[in-house]
Amino acid sequence: MELTGALRRFFVFLSEQQALRRWVTRNGWANRAARRFVAGETLEEACDAAARLNAQGKAVTLNLLGERTTRPEDAQAAAVLYRKVLEEIHRRSLHADLAVKLTQLGLDLSPKLAEENLDGICTQARRLGGFVWIDMEASRYVEATLEVYRNLRASGHGPDTVGVALQAYLYRSERDLEDLLRLGTRIRLVKGAYAEPPHIAYPRKADVDRAYVRLLERLLRQGYRPAIATHDERILAHARSFAEAHGIPLDRFEFQMLYGVRRDLQARVVQEGGRLRVYVPFGPDWYPYFMRRLGERPANAAFLLRSLVQESPGGFGRPSGVE
Q1: Taking a C-beta distance cutoff of 8 angstroms, is the pair 187, 164 a contact?
Q2: Pick from 32, 156, 196, 310: CA 20 to 30 A from residue 288's CA?
């Protein structure tokens, strides 16, 4: 078993432990450690972070953290706040779009509820010239997520209003990619951050990487304004060389990276003329996201351990040297 795969599964397990969640979120050191990966708890903090990134030549995707909503009123409240985010992006003229999770909008309660909430968000985005990404969650939600997306497209929301993420580590994603390409879908390609059984997802990192490259090449050739979301330097280099070899201009696709992760690599992509978008999460419900980020790379977990030693107790502050 690979260390990275075991680490990811361990932290995904921790992300679902409610007792640990209550303990961690009450501790100042964890709040400050999370601030490396989370822009803050408020919309104002998120928009301020987006403005700073825009000034560095980086576009932004804003995401209100939260998932697996269990009450209809909470799902509707999240939808209202997302529409407010779109308004604030427009008001401040930010180079930013939006990412949503359907379980936050009520998918566990009713696919129809999630679809209605997302339809309202997409209608607002279309009115304001914005764009909405549908994040992909654990494998059990993939089919329902794609069905909601197809229904939105059928109802008149086009590829310049709404797109969807695909996870390379799922075996089914190659088939899903072909179906989505036929719809002219705007696709964000990610590796996948959830713990999945080996009959559903590639268990070995090397196999995930190979699947990602296959999907990447297909997207670059046939995709509509695709997003290559990875911090893997070898894959980034391959994407650029593949694009150059096939006469694909750099403005036909964009790279996407996570807030607080490989900021050196983000700067390099911009310096080399690539289009870069940074995924900027915010909100008080940061614990599950934070744990998944720690599980993705041993360096992220090491960052938390250093914070335990170096940081003094306090609130959701801004540690020195953190973006």
Answers
A1: yes
A2: 310
DSSP 129-190: T--EEE---SGGGHHHHHHHHHHHHHTT--TTTEEEEEETTBTTHHHHHHHHHHTT--EEEE
Pairing of strands 132-134, 96-100: parallel
Counting residues of the chain whose pLDDT is more than 70, the rounded percentage is: 79
Contact 311, 319 (CB under 8 A): yes
Return all residues near 101 (Cβ < 8 A) that are at least 6 apart. 63, 66, 67, 135, 137
Would you call 188 a catalytic residue per the annotation?
yes
Query: Burial of 272 by CB count in 10 Å (0-12 exposed, 13-18 middle, 19+ buried)?
Result: exposed
Catalytic residue among 108, 135, 209, 232: 135
User: Would you state the structure tokens that stand for residue 180, as one six-digit string?
Assistant: 């989505």
Global pTM value = 0.85
List of residues 6+ apart from 210 with CB closer than 8 A: none
Exposure string for 40-69, b = 16+ CB within 10 A, e = fewer: bbebebbbebbeebbeeebbbbbbbbbbbb
Query: Do 130 and 97 meet the contact criterion of CB atoms below 8 Å apart?
Result: yes
Q: Mapped to the 3 state alphabet, what secondary structure does 44-109 carry?
A: HHHHHHHHHHHHCCCEEEEEECCCCCCCHHHHHHHHHHHHHHHHHHHHCCCCEEEEECCCCCCCCC
Cα separation of the two ends of the chain? 34
pLDDT tens, position by position, 76-122: 999 999 999 999 999 999 999 999 999 999 999 999 999 999 999 99
Overall residue count recorded for the chain in this entry: 323
CB atoms within 10 A of CB 131: 22
The residue among 117, 51, 55, 50 whose CA lies nearest residue 281 is 50
The catalytic position among 188, 277, 292, 293 is: 188
